[in-house]
Amino acid sequence: QVFLVEKAGRRSLFLAGLMGMLVSAVVMTVGLVLLSQFAWMSYVSMVAIFLFVIFFEVGPGPIPWFIVAELFSQGPRPAAIAVAGFCNWACNFIVGMCFQYIADLCGPYVFAIFAGLLLIFFLFAYFKVPETKGKSFEEIAAVFRRKKLSAKAMTELQDLRGSEEA
């Protein structure tokens, strides 16, 4: 796993894992919806479940731990990892406790909820998560500073344009 992460990069593996999980969730939904019409859809659903787990293990399972450790300097890193671990286990607990109720409520469309969430996670990661492969903490922090400064400059430019029109 570590060799793959170093070769392919954290962000690209994370995005590939999220997209693979998204496609697998859609295929699981289609398989469950069509199960009553086509008996062989049970095999499609099983393959989709295995692929979902494989894509999780390639991307969203391990990669956030790499990224969290690389996004924070030495001082706040333990607190950031503790918060990330708490969020991870709290979400696992919520999904574990609520899944049966959601499955009873949504029926074969239960994985459509996961597909929607995975799409949101993919878009967030695509637009907000930087590649940290081969970069020092200072280089990663500089990327965030540039984004923050450019967003601030755009806001100031819009404010100036707004006051010129008035």
UniProtKB/TrEMBL annotation:
Main location group: membrane
GO MF term list: D-glucose transmembrane transporter activity
Transmembrane segments: 12-34, 40-58, 79-103, 109-127
GO cellular component: brush border; plasma membrane
Record keywords, A-Z: Membrane, Transmembrane, Transmembrane helix
Record-annotated Major facilitator superfamily (MFS) profile domain positions: 1-133
InterPro entries: GLUT, MFS_dom, MFS_sugar_transport-like, MFS_trans_sf, Sugar/inositol_transpt
Topology in the lipid bilayer: Multi-pass membrane protein
Organism in which the protein naturally occurs: Oreocharis arfaki (tit berrypecker)
Locations listed in the record: Membrane
The protein, known as: GTR2 protein
Protein's GO biological process: D-glucose import; dehydroascorbic acid transport
